[in-house]
Write a structure and sequence with these properties.
Oligomer: single chain
Strand content: under 5%
Number of strands: 0
Distance between the termini: 32 Å
Shape: globular
Order of helices and strands: HHHHHHH
Number of domains: 1
Structural class: mainly alpha
């Protein structure tokens, strides 16, 4: 398995760690975006599962990361588009839980 993907899969299991670690996780997800087309079907399935976990635990992740950085401010500074939905944990935290990651960018 790709080591970056492996680390991301582990990271989404721990919403109660520090906001600094969550920031690293979001940056890790950015790097995964650049290479995910090269993933095997198994790796793509693992990524989809990890993304679902991140969405499901968005309120918990948002609570911790908001102690460390201002997500809306960061998005504005870096012009982060909705397609990079993992940077929108504050928004995801208030959306209906049944949304899939690929549907979030459309909201």
């Amino acid at each position: 398995m790709n080591p970056l993907l492996k680390n991301y899969c582990v990271s989404v299991d721990f919403p109660d760690v520090s906001g600094a670690e969550h920031l690293e996780m979001l940056e890790m997800r950015d790097r995964i975006l650049e290479i995910e087309t090269q993933f095997s079907s198994e790796e793509k399935a693992l990524l989809a599962n990890a993304d679902r976990q991140l969405v499901a635990k968005a309120p918990e992740f948002d609570r911790e990361i908001s102690r460390f950085i201002n997500l809306p401010g960061r998005r504005n500074e870096q012009a982060i588009p909705p397609q990079r939905w993992w940077w929108y944990l504050d928004v995801l935290a208030v959306l209906p839980i049944h949304l899939k990651p690929e549907e979030i960018a459309q909201v």
